[in-house]
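Hi C.,

You asked whether I'd gotten around to modeling the 320-residue construct. I have! Everything is below, sequence then structure, no commentary in between.
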Amino acid sequence: MQGATRIGISGWRYAPWRGRFYPQGLAQRLELDFASRMLPTIEINGSFYSLQRPESYQAWHDATPDGFVFAVKGPRYITHNLRLKEPRTALANFFASGVFALGSKLGPILWQLPPYFAYNADRLEEFFTLLPRDGRSALALARQHNEKVDDDRTLLKVPAKLRLRHALEVRHDSFANPEFIALLRRQKVALVVADTAGRWPLLEDLCADFVYMRLHGDKELYASGYSDEALDRWAERIDAWRHGGQVKDARLAAPLRRLSGRKGRDVYCYFDNDVKVHAPYDAAHLAARLGVATGLGPDDNFEPPPGMAVRKRTKAQTRK
């Protein structure tokens, strides 16, 4: 059985993309509309920097087509400021802040640890235990929010049959150990496969029923594009993972154990090499290798989705 494969981008609001990926003159408020019709999934990054509002999540939901999926990045206040210590209230604030407005478009939740966070089994265990996995537990946690999200900034209506998946991105060498992998598997949390131009660990241990990938650039962090050969290698890996297998040259923190059965895993892959506008094109080229449909055509010939008006720039706007 083959798992679902979604390949997209990390964020969508980047000034260098305007007039290149985004058509010249496209209003900024329509950028998500455009991007979500080119690629089937996008990471929401604003939630990492600050708590968002219910109306923002609702607007993002409404701007995207049926079947689209968002990944949501958990707040850095939890991962970087608190360093996962006593995170219950902060987690409650996050889940109360409006994320439920994404409804069926809510995909995995990404938690990114800072490079200075070393492996701490007790702290991770406590954090993973608090993470809600369904609507009922998510709502119970959200109701424990404090005054940082008042009545005007909360949404406590949970979609029916909500399922929550969590992925952890690590950036310290101490996580390359079998004990950590065993903890992830016990808690059914995915280990993010993160390509960071060699700066931080790149591990491919399979720990959950899905795979979460972040491709930040293989030569220059956040900037370099992926060659045909590199995309071929990633396509080979994704194809193995979505069919329930593992590649022979997998980079593992724990010795490869026999995979139980051949049930396919869903794969979510996000390109974060946005600085030089590589991300959407690399995503489209990888998707094509795997038979994943996108709305992208030749790199130099993009058209807005049917029915989307594109405002032409005035001479004054062009000079800015």
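If it helps when you're writing up: The longest strand covers residues 106-112.

Thanks,
B.
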